[in-house]
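lol forgot to send this yesterday, sorry. struct tokens for the thing we talked abt
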């Protein structure tokens, strides 16, 4: 399973890369705004800065809501760097844009996915990645992990090449559950990944080793 970090923060991206666990990055307009990145030129420059750090796919989201606008923006984004994957919303216009990009050899990430039906349409259109939102599905009292499992099963049954990129990951248990059911990728904040490091027995064991070392060596 691949790990993407869901951020536009360059320091967090560098930290994930230094840990040796970074396979890619996902971003969106909200994450860009959080880092104070404003204006088209600044956003495009920031994508280039991210691509300079990451040896992997970087999802860059279109803002347009019509197919023509999505295609224009997506082609511009894809031209920035070979690592760019054009992030397109799950709408009728978005599916048309994904089909266009697929025909042109431009990779895509279909985002804002909340059902298996939407997942089938995205795969049929040729999406490279599909981003079902685990946490947001949980928020409406359904089971986001069950949705991931359902999509993985459907894609496996029919041989779809679209990779399941579990998004809206809130905690380390989400990551482990996605790994158990066969998600291809998880994208999440760096702190959710770092939480996988934590276990009280590791802390206790390390403290004991250091205490024993001190007794022997003074």
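and heres what i got for the seq, position by position
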């Amino acid at each position: 399973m691949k790990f993407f970090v869901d951020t536009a923060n360059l320091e967090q991206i560098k930290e994930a890369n230094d840990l040796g666990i970074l396979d890619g990055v996902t971003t969106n307009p909200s994450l860009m705004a959080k880092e104070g990145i404003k204006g088209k030129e600044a956003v495009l420059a920031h994508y280039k800065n991210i691509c300079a750090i990451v040896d992997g796919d970087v999802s860059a989201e279109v803002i347009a809501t019509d197919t023509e606008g999505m295609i224009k923006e997506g082609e511009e984004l894809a031209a920035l760097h070979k690592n760019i994957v054009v992030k397109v919303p799950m709408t009728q216009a978005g599916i048309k844009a994904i089909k266009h990009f697929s025909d042109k050899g431009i990779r895509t990430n279909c985002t804002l996915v909340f059902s298996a039906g939407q997942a089938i349409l995205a795969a049929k259109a040729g999406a490279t990645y599909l981003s079902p939102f685990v946490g947001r599905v949980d928020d409406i009292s359904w089971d986001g992990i069950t949705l991931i499992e359902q999509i993985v099963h459907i894609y496996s049954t029919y041989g779809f090449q679209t990779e399941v990129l579990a998004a809206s990951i809130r905690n380390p248990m989400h990551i482990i559950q996605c790994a158990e059911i066969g998600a291809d990728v998880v994208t999440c904040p760096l702190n959710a990944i770092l939480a996988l490091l934590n276990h009280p027995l590791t802390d206790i064991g390390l403290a004991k080793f250091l205490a024993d070392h001190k007794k022997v060596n003074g």
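The longest helix spans residues 200-217. anyway ping me if u want another try
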